[in-house]
Amino acid sequence: MPIFHLFLVAIVQGLTEFLPVSSSGHLILLPILTGLADQGQVIDVAVHIGTLFAVILYFWSDVGLAVRGIPSLLRGKINEPGAGLALCLVIATIPVIIFGLVLKLTGLDDMLRSTAVIGWTMLIFGLVLYWADKTGPEEMPAESWSIRNAFIMGLWQAIALIPGTSRSGITITAGRYLGYTRHAAAKLSMLMSIPTIIASGVLLGAEVAVTADAQAARDGAIAAVFSFVAALIALTLMMRLLRSVSFTPYVIYRVILGVILLWIAYS
């Protein structure tokens, strides 16, 4: 695959994975709008790995806390440091795994990859994010994350398997609806992405492992590095801006893009 194509795919994935604008939607639209060949699952897995390392690096202290809490969680001591966070992350991931398997086994995942679907979800869930951000109270920090709220956010996260919804966007929406501050909702959303990306990477990786060759591995490594850098930059900027800026700029972008896509789909 040409280096420019790898760069373009990786940058799109890296910049949009953690912004509430739908990375999967943009990746699906990339070949549709540019005429470039579909990048294929090998590159999809690679760019997701790149973004995974970016979020782990950015939230290293929280990730380390959760990992250290796993032994306590396995012993049933959920009140020990890190065990509660690890449990919440597990609970938040279960709905998306179940819903993802249903879509995969029924073939609905391919049926949903259309310009019209992405246009509607981009528009509708952008407006839902605006509503939640403007009406949700800003009361709770990320440290107050509970099992109940983790499950609720996990259910919302499962909706993001519909292209154009945005995993980060829908979980941030859920967090704001539940009363978490903007920064806390974004932080919880990013932490939730780690087991979710790992789960999807394992699923897709198992499918492509038998067909990948040396050239595909090289292309994947290059794409992963590009997406890592782009994701780390995007994540850093968003988390800093959220201390003074709302989610409205992302909503405006989603609405404009959604309207354009619907016009393309139905014209």
Could you describe the 3D structure shown?
With 267 residues, the chain is an all-alpha fold. It has one domain. The chain contains 12 helices and no strands. Helix 1 (3-16) packs across helix 3. The longest helix is centred in the last third of the chain and has 28 residues, at 214-241. It starts with a helix and ends with a helix.
Which percent range describes the beta-strand content?
under 5%
Enumerate how many helices there are, as a single number: 12
Biggest sheet overview: none
Q: How many structural units, i.e. domains?
A: 1
Oligomeric state of this protein: single chain
Class by alpha and beta content: mainly alpha
- Gap from first CA to last CA: 32 Å
Mean pLDDT comes to: 88
* Uncertain runs: none
Give the proportion of residues in helices.
over 70%
Question: Secondary-structure blueprint of this entry?
Answer:
Layout: H1 3-16, H2 23-34, H3 40-58, H4 60-74, H5 83-106, H6 108-111, H7 115-135, H8 147-159, H9 167-178, H10 182-208, H11 214-241, H12 248-266
Question: What's a quick, concise take on this entry?
Answer:
This protein has 267 residues and is mostly helical. It contains twelve helices and no strands. The protein starts with a helix and ends with a helix.
